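B., you asked whether I could sanity-check this one before it goes into the benchmark set. Here's the sequence:
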Amino acid sequence: MWTGHRRPTGYHYVHDTRTTVASRLAYLMFIGDLDDVTQVHHLCQNTACVKPDHLEAVDQGENVRRGSGEWVTCDRLHPDDPTRIGQRKDGRSYCKECQRVRERQRRAAFAEKIKRMRSL
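And here's what the prediction gave me:
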């Protein structure tokens, strides 16, 4: 099990010249190469696991199909209420509340930009 830092989503990261998911790094070190679009699937369904025997390279669609089907909390730790979870066209889930917060911030920044431009 990975004992280093884990984000609230359950994934673990290693920081070197760039940020990498620890299970991806374990795959690269002990099994073989990965291209940029290939994901590492945890056969044991435990995102803290970095045991090479439990890791398999798959495409994103296959990784989503094999997933546990359970929502993992968003970075802001919103409740895992099914009405708060949206699904993108590529199959990835997202937190609707976080999306609303980002949209409010984007609109406020745009309104501020327009306000500054009008004051010139």
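One thing to flag: Residues 1-70 form a domain with the Homing Intron 3 (I-Ppo) Encoded Endonuclease; Chain A fold (CATH 3.90.75.20). Otherwise nothing jumped out at me.
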